[in-house]
Each structure stands twice: as C-alpha cells, then as structure tokens.
Amino acid sequence: ELGPYSDYMRKEIHEQPDAIRRAVMGRLDERFATAKLGGLNFDPRELRNIKRVKFLGCGSAYYAGQMGAALVEELARIPADAEPASEFRYRSPVVDPDALYVAVSQSGETSDTLMAVQELKRKGGQVMGAVNVVGSAIGRECGHGIFLHAGPEVAVASTKALTNMAVNFALLALLLGRVRDLSAAQGERVVRGLRGLPSQVTAMLNAEDEIAAIASEFADADHMFFIGRVRGWPVAREGAQKLKEISYVHAEAYQAGELKHGPLALIAPDMPSVVVIPSDDLVAKNISTIEQIKARGGPVIAVTSTDIPAGLADALIRVPRTEPELEPILFNIPLQLLAYHTAAKLGRDIDKPRNLAKSVTVE
Ligand code: BG6
Fold first, then answer.
1. DSSP letter string, 196-224
2. Which residues are identified as catalytic?
3. Tens of pLDDT, residues 242-278
4. What is the pLDDT of residues 323-345, one digit of tens each?
5. How far is CA 211 from the centre of its chain?
6. Residue 26: band (very low, low, confident or very high) from pLDDT cuts 50, 70, 90
7. Ligand 1 pocket list (CB less than 6 A)
8. Which atom of ligand 1 is nearest the CA belonging to 157?
9. Ligand 1 centroid vs 185 CA: distance in angstroms?
C-alpha cells in the first residue's frame, strides 16, 4: 500500500494534488461561476438567510476551520469564526438560530466534535458536517454537509484532509458569496484559482529536496516560532502544530503584530522563526517583522509568494502565486514538508507520534 514511500505521511503529502482534484471535480459550475455542493441541501433563499458561520473542530480541523472562516468572510462577507469543538461543548454556548455551524472532522468520530454537534442540535442550531469518512458518526448526526473527498488518511498528522478541508471551505464560501454580492467576475477568478491548485501543489512537491535541506539545517533547534498575520495566521498555527506533533520540537505560533507585546523577549540565535508572508497588503509589515527578529539575532525561515529583499532571511521557501484568498491552501504544503523532514532527520516515528491517536473517540 505504501508504494515507493517509507511512511503514510509522506505518501499522503504527495497525494494532495489528486485529493484537491477530487474535491473540486464536478463541483465547479463554470457557467455561473459558483460551486455545486449536492450534500448541502439548502436552497438559495436558505443560503441567503445565513447570518453567521461558525466552524467547530479539533486540532488541524480547527485550524482548517479558521481558514474557512476567513474565506467565508472574504468571499461572502458573512461574519465567520472558528472555535475548538472541545471548548464550545463545555462553555454553555449561545446558539444563534440564524447561524450555520460547520462541524469539521477528518474521521467524523472525534468525541469533542460529535458532542458539540449534539449540544447544537439540542439547542436548535443549524449544523452541517464537513467530514472525510463517509458513514461516520458526525456525518450521520449532521444529516447534511460536504464530504472532503481526501481519500483514506492513515498518518496521525493530518495533511491531505486538512488541505481538502480548506479547499471545500473555499467552495462553500464561493457558493455563499455567489448567492449574495460576489460578482460573476470575482467568482470566475476563484474558480480559476481552484482549478490551478493541483499543478501548483505538484510544483511545490517537486521542490521537496530544498525544504528537506532547510529542515536538516534547523533540526537541532529546541524551540521555533511560527509567525503570520491575517491569512498567514492559521497557516502559522497549523505549521507549528505539525512540527510539534511529529518532531517533538517545541513550536509556538504567534500573530506578527503580537510579537512586540511579549514573545520578542525570547528571540535569540537559538530560536528560529518561520515567517509566513502571503502576497497581500501586509508584505511591508511582514518584512519589518523579519527585520525586528534579525535585529535580535533570531534566524528566519521566510515562506513567501512575493519578493522580499535578498539576503533578508536565512532561508527562503517559495510558494507559487494563486488568488489571494486561496493562498493559505498552498502555504500549508511547505510547512508540512518542513515538519516531516525535521521529524525524519530526528528519527521520529512519523506516522505514529508518541501519545497521539488518529482520532480521539473518548474523553
Ligand atoms: C487529533 C489528531 O487527535 O484529532 C489530529 O491527532 C486531528 O491530527 C484531530 O486533526 C481532529 O481529528 P478529526 O478526525 O476530527 O479531524
């Protein structure tokens, strides 16, 4: 089953172009520049009545939900956010009858997420599933939603399922946008962007050796920062999570703007920072973040789809340009590879990290 791969995580990383193709196949409506999501069961009027969207999930599914919330706000201009399902179910949440709740789960069996769905249903909330495993508990409990079509994921650390979550949320956001004010031209732009993703991911995977070399160079660090802002923030969080779960290197994600309010005190030559720089309005601010880190002797790995001054960062990982709203999907890929090759260099049991399970079905 593993074919040429030594473990499932690397196999699943390399399956991503096909996984994305499966997620968008048959779901893009070129004529009306929108998405078709058959499992959703909402008519246009019901879609228009959604006043708020909240994504609920655990671990990578929560970070994917954060990416989804940004997509929904940007493309549909509906207020949206994400919350860990494990928090939501315990905090006596106010359930908004005009909101759409999205339960996000690869396995569809995560107990915290399932309990959040049950709590929502009990309070009359409108909830849909975004699950990978067909027939799973969360999918059945929600009754409607979108399947991720990532294919079976075996490695504990989620890669292709996380990617397909974000791709599916782009489809959902496109659909919600096109029943509102997103123009056909803007819709076409997103459709084109989605179509282009698989070959862009392939191009990034072809540059794996360069990322492996960077991973070896920094693998002896005990701690790492992952810095991003706005679209780069959930990417930084997911990148930090991936690194810590499979390599056991302590990694912490921080919003770039918050660095100066505390963590800058930790910047030193033995504390590398991975800085995520999408092609957005904040490039200059992100460059100045790198300068602040460098001024304190901190090594920087820049991950970027834009041009930054030569020699500014100690290592540079290039990400191809896509439509701005879709950038987080591509930025995840090199961070998966960075985590993977750090763990490989350190000789970790990549598919089965210590203390973790693929899906946590008990408290
Ligand atoms: C964690 C896994 O326990 O559960 C993560 O280690 C995963 O990789 C999370 O993201 C949520 O799982 P699921 O199946 O609900 O997406």
1. HHHHHHHHHHHTHHHHHHHHHHHTT-SEE
2. 358
3. 999 999 999 999 999 998 888 888 999 999 999 999 9
4. 999 999 999 999 999 999 999 99
5. 19
6. very high
7. 58-61, 105-107, 110, 113, 156-158, 356-357, 359-360
8. 8
9. 37
